[in-house]
Amino acid sequence: MTQGDFATSEESNSLQGRDAISTTLFAFATASFLVALDRAIFSPLLPEMAADLHTSVGRAGLGVTAYVLPYGFFQLLFGPLGDRIGRVQVTRWCFLVFSLGTGLAAFAPSLGTLIFLRAATGMCAAAVIPLALAYIGDVIPYESRQRAITNLMGATSTGNALSTAVGGILGSFVSWRAVFGLYGLIAIVVSAVFFRLPAPKPPPRDGANPTLSYRAVLSQRPARLVYGLVALEGVVVLGAFTYLGSYLRERFSLDYFIIGLILACYGVGILCTSRIFFPRIFRRIPEQRLTLFGGLFLGVGYLTLAELSIWQLTPLPLFVAGIGFALLHSTLQTRATEFAPGARGSAVSLFVFCAFAGGGVGSAGFGWVVGAHGYEPVLVFSGLLMLFVGLFAAWKW
């Protein structure tokens, strides 16, 4: 083989490696979208599910709880498992169970069976997002990592924003069982892609201890700061955001289709940040200012929503809030991928767990506030909290 042939072969291998990484990132983004969509897509279908299974809506709602609780707690298991076995290896099997559990739910003969399947689905869904972030940390250099993380966030946020509307729209045309079956079929296709991907074991990084524990990660002051900030962020972006659809419906009497389109503007803001704004503008801005702008945009978005009296104007503050979330959250996530390179899965899993813990606190607390005082105090408090997070993060960075 000549030197020229060798160079050509090396270039080809490099291109194949980049193609494999791009395909893997796309598979992770698609799986993250489906997992995010799955968390609330069935909420509008609860009345029909309850009637079909001969139970109450409240008891049928246990199927949602059975999904959410394992999803939160098993974040902490799959990070270390991904460090030990590999990101793709763990995700492919977990997503296969996710797909089968979702599809089989279409044939659930009783509420107990449905709850069991939803619990298994939620448990395995917990692997996807933290291991996607860990994989990005493994294969993308730090200076380019934030854009890749923002792309992933765009997929998950779009899934979150569309979940309730998609469930309502599909449920108006087909039965809840057909929704489960169709959704499971789509997930199976994505699962098959994961089994065709190369699955290297993440190598230990120089100077890193691959056996770092959660305690070792938390012993780092910058880590505690980031985990605290993302927990406060979760109170708003996972807690308060839950009630935005209900707020729009109560205040403006909109149907679920219009609400879904309005909420999707939040995801559009994230996607525009990753695809347009970040490469051209934000990439040249220091991380300190990204956190500041992110908190300010989020805060202004929520505060503006509280004051609007015309529903046609609501997409704009949601779009601005989406930009703010992309800037703030992606900066925090990027930092989290570097706390323990030898135990990146553990560090990122703890990051995701803190975000969902904050979201759980926010959902419960804001639920009480909505019942007692309405939606406006929730929006005002959320806006002020995000302004504080942005200013505090910029001061401490």
Topology:
Blueprint lengths: L2 H36 L7 H7 L4 H4 L1 H12 L1 H11 L1 H18 L6 H15 L2 H12 L2 H30 L4 H21 L17 H5 L2 H19 L4 H9 L3 H25 L6 H21 L7 H22 L7 H30 L2 H21 L1
Helix pairs in contact: 1-8, 1-9, 1-10, 4-7, 5-6, 5-17, 6-7, 6-8, 6-10, 8-9, 8-17, 9-14, 9-16, 12-16, 12-17, 12-18, 13-14, 14-16, 15-16, 15-18
Summarize the structure in words.
It contains 18 helices and no strands. The chain is an all-alpha fold and 397 residues long. The chain has 2 domains: 19-199, Up-down Bundle (Growth Hormone, Chain: A), CATH 1.20.1250.20; 210-397, Up-down Bundle (Growth Hormone, Chain: A), CATH 1.20.1250. It starts with a helix and ends with a helix.
Average pLDDT rating:
83
Round the Cα radius of gyration to an integer and report it.
21 Å
CATH architecture of the largest domain: Up-down Bundle
Overall tally of structural domains? 2
Structural class: mainly alpha
At the third CATH level, what is the topology name of the largest domain? Growth Hormone, Chain: A
Question: Counting H and I runs of at least 4 residues, what is the number of helices?
Answer: 18
CATH superfamily of the largest domain: MFS general substrate transporter like domains
**Spans where pLDDT lies below 50 across 5 or more residues:** 1-16, 205-211
What is the 3D form?
globular
Major sheet characteristics: none
- Binned, the helix content reads over 70%
In total, the number of strands is: 0
The top level CATH class name of the largest domain: Mainly Alpha
Instruction: Return the string of H and E elements.
Output: HHHHHHHHHHHHHHHHHH
| Strand residue content | under 5%
The rounded distance between the terminal residues' Cα atoms is 53 Å
